[in-house]
Amino acid sequence: MDGLTVSQLAGRTGVPASTVRFYEQEGLLPARRSLAGYRLYDDVAVERLAFIGTAKGLGLPLPEIRDLLEPWQHAQCADVQEELIPRLAGRLAETRERMGSLAALQERLTRARAQLDALDGDGPCDPSCALLGLPEEDAAIACTLDAADRDTRLAQWRDLLASITARAAVPGGVRLTFGPEVRPGPLAELAAAEVDCCRFFALTLHLGPPLVLEATAPEDALGLVHELFGAPA
Length: 233
Prior knowledge:
This protein has helices at 6-13, 17-25, 44-57, 62-74, 77-118, 147-161, 184-197, 222-229, and strands at 32-33, 39-40, 164-170, 173-178, 202-206, 212-216. By secondary structure, the chain is α+β, with helices and mostly antiparallel strands.
């Protein structure tokens, strides 16, 4: 038989037969048919598979590898270099970016693990758990109240928030509009107490009418804004 069958090509290259067939279907590995209908490959297919494997190892997707195979087989090496160099530069830039992201994730996971070890497991979960792994400079994004005082504070907010007539999104937080039954004094007093224990909150009271409170926080603490004051619809 003049040529290599799929199994013979797979045996010579170490590439699984199923992958050989897939590459043919994707137009990366030409084959001809024998009189009996078998796929046959010439010796160039061995080198072609080696090139495909190298390109895949460099992170190139199959469409780009397909584009490179034509100059690789029929043109000069310089033509292949001209096509390959910018593609590798792009993969290198992407790899460096992913490495930076993974390094940052590793640091945050390490901090989060240490913070969990230091937490007191007695009592309900602290909302600051949503901020696990933040750098020390962001450690202020936490509530200084103990569990009992937090429950009291939440009850105070629930009483006032029951009188909200509108809730709207603002950059970094939410705007709450209160009904006429809410007086500015108690709301201002509660807002001041909240900022005192949760300094990452910025609470701005507009006397109106109507009485409006804007609650904002850094991006990493936006979830706490929505947890306490509700998310805009």
